[in-house]
């Protein structure tokens, strides 16, 4: 396992019993664990193939090198707005 994988694995098992956030956002595990309330939230790493092909196409058409690094933003599950609502309700004692 890579360091980020190891961290995510650790976060899941530490948080499993108390609804903590995790970082295994695949549909049949991390997202399902959120729906089952084993995790309070998770992080989805979106597919990057489309972005990679677009970068490659742009570089070929322009005759240049693609950027050395391209950052793809992760996606919160549930959405951050939903998490903010839950946090607000919890702060109000609901």
Describe this structure in words.
By secondary structure, the protein is mainly alpha-helical. The chain has a domain at 3-46 and 73-91. Helices cover 48% and strands 6% of the residues. It has four helices and two strands; from the N terminus they run H-H-E-H-E-H. It has helices spanning 3-15, 30-35, 49-62, 80-91, and strands at 42-44, 75-77. A two-stranded antiparallel sheet has the order 1-2. The longest helix is centred in the middle third of the chain and has 14 residues, at 49-62. The radius of gyration is 18 Å and the shape is elongated. It starts with a helix and ends with a helix. 13% of the residues are buried. The model is unreliable at 1-17 (pLDDT under 50).
Question: What keyword list fits this structure?
Answer:
94 residues, mainly alpha, two-stranded antiparallel ribbon, 2 strands
Tell me the layout of helices and strands.
Layout: H1 3-15, H2 30-35, E1 42-44, H3 49-62, E2 75-77, H4 80-91
Antiparallel strand pairs: 1-2
State the strand order across the main sheet.
Answer: 1-2
Strand element count: 2
As a percent range, the share of helical residues equals 40-55%
Order of helices and strands: HHEHEH
Structural class of the helix and strand makeup? Answer: mainly alpha
**Overall shape:** elongated
Task: Classify the beta-strand content into a percent band.
Answer: 5-15%
The gyration radius over C-alpha positions equals 18 Å
| Number of contiguous helices | 4
- The mean pLDDT is 78
Beginning-to-end CA distance, first to last residue: 40 Å
Largest beta-sheet characterization: 2 strands, antiparallel
Question: Stretches where pLDDT falls below 50 for ≥5 residues?
Answer: 1-17
